[in-house]
# Entry
Amino acid sequence: MKLGVLGAGPWGRALYGLAKAAGNDPLLGHRNHAPDGFASTDDPARLGAHADLIALAVPPSAVRGALGALGLTSRHRVLLISRGFDPVSGQWLSQLVTHASPVLRVGVLAGPGVATELLEGLPGAGVVASPFTDVCRLTQQALHSGRFRVYPSQDLRGVELAGAAMEILALAVGIVDGLELGAGLRGIVMARGLAEAARLADALGADGRTLGGLVGVGELVAATSSPEHRAYAGGRALAVGGDVGRTEAVDTARAALVLAGEHGIELPLCQAVAAIGSGRLSPQDAIQRLMERAAPTDES
Amino acid sequence: MAQLIARLDQRLDGLDDVAVQRLLEDTVYQERQRFEDESPTEDEAKLLARISRLALDNRRSAWEEACRGCVDAYAREIHNRFSLRAYRMATRLLPGALTRLVTAPNAGRVISRDFDPRARIRIQGHVEQVKRLAERGTVVFTPTHLSNLDSPLIGYALFSSGLPPVAYGAGLNLFSNPVMEFWMSRLGAYTVDRRKQGQLYKEALKGYATELTLRGVHSLFFPGGTRSRSGRVEKRVKKGLLGTAIVAWQELLAQRAPRSDVFVVPMTLSTSLVLEAETLITDSLAREGKSRYIISDDEFSRPRDVASYLSRVLNLDEAVHVTFCQPMDLLGNPVNDDGESLDARGRVVDRRGYVCDRDGRPEADPQRDRVYTDRLARRIVESWHRENVALSTHVASFAAFQMLADRHPHLDVFHLVHLDPQRRLMERGRLLTAIDDLLIALSTLQQQGRIRTSLPTTAQGILDEAVHTFGSYHTRKALRPEGDWIAADMELTLYYRNRLVGYGLGDA
# Structure
């Protein structure tokens, strides 16, 4: 099983370790300094030539560039670790792969795993989603072991959506926690956020049950319990007036709103996150506006 | 036949005992169901008795023998009179024959002697590219389907474009028309009996289509499965036969065959009038229409109607448009003139990598192939919509139907078609304004490459042409003038209007 991992950040190194634990010899692609103890290369084309399955452990904004540099061909399978949307085109990242490279066999790995915990050798699990069972099977061969369980799914859109939604929700919960608004509001934000994601899933033909699994609820619990989770930490920082710069979760919220608009769906919580992230509303005002919305007719 | 039996044996090898028994029982059950509605022939009754007896046996070998017996009998029926030799000779035999076919069975009487089909039937699109591809590899043509006359029409289009003839599956019911039976049997038609729903029949049919492609026989089938009842451009396609092409391609790659390329060419057929429109739309609207898959008593079964249709329609200018769409590989990627596949960025891509390992050997993966075929099916449907040609009968009908729908916003389609005659009248001036608005929207769509049009330049011209065209054939006229008013036959207006549904033109 020839696995290439592009990106030497926490996720790239964690995947490398999981592949080793599963009995494979992965190759890690890095940009600057070669990390110690890893079989690695700074030549993406060499990584592409080495591997049948390439895991892209880079931020969404770097996926397009990576696709160009890897010298991908029709025989490759690409596994996305980033989730959500391409910030340039607003496409789902899996769509970007098939539009910006010759690769058709693409999958997404997502779930409640926290990279730093996996690096410490703690147990974890994830879902690999692809319409191609071949991609799921190769990912299991590459990563599944006594340390890390890999569940296959064909609901690619559902997993991408759940992954994107949990980023947004982690940021929203981070704001609530940062403002110390209590466990009640925390629960409300989680539940209403999941309801918004379910509406979008329905419109996109994704399987709503995915949201109740590892990539949905599982990931939300993990993200909002980990002070190091980037989106959650970003939310906490925003709550206290910190400048977190451009965050992936806010980009994701904006892209999700465009998608929801195309399907005539309202996502008030997502809208609030986008407004806070762009500085148009303070966290306090955003929460107030959400609470003052017209009385709902039901909970859906 | 031996190849189909070998293919079946390969399939049976991959099944456990329970699955083999189920495969057989499914066919026994489906055939019994079929014979509740129709009497079996002597051979069919014998076959059913034999496989029923073997199905009760306890041995797997007996079940396999029964499966082989079924596939052998089905394959003989499918093969019919199709002959590879006759098919290869057809290029030389065709001149004149197909022209006579599309110019009606009684050409001297119903069509004027100076009739020139090239002036009536417009053939457009990627014709030259398809010719080159047909020399490099095997081509599978996948047209939209409106009428039983589509097959001869495509035969004519292929012939007059200098393209080779094709093998195609024709419904067994079509062979009831003696004129069609004569031509179809000799020009590459193999039979498809859609009443046979058993899995073993489908296996035989798919195996047959695979073998044709393996032998380099160009073929044609209608992925929509049947004529579009509603008149809409099909949005969904059946993938059974479509999926056989990727199987054949991989077998050719494994054999390292010199002509291993297989290409798909979607086609659109756009006609001002459709022979069977009245029956089809009635069937589409009827509650029982959904289960009435085969219509054997429509206009097509009445030779006089066919002759009347041909004489009227083929005397109209550019009444028929046949478009060869962008050719594709079996993954839905476009191909260039040299037959190379292009990825989404327009770069050449080695398509073999999608199915082969690093050493160029095909890796069997039916699930992967199904996903590829789904993608191909989506690309075909997109192509059909892009290359659909809007004609005056469609545009006038769309504007008229929408006008009446807007006037009765509380009525759904099923109630609209039953509007009483007084409420189906439209002021000519208002209808012209609606057509004008539609023309603007269509022009934008055309500029975006989302549809083709072949229309008079003014709303008045479109309405006049549509009224004239409708007046020339159907017993009921979709649109007909009544002084300053235009009256609509709601069912037919709906049928012709439906050709423009799905483009965001304001239809429900």
User: Anything to note?
Assistant: The interface with chain B takes residues 52, 73-76, 98-102, 104-105, 131-134 of chain A (CB under 8 Å). The first helix of chain A runs from residue 10 to 21. Chain A has a mean pLDDT of 92.
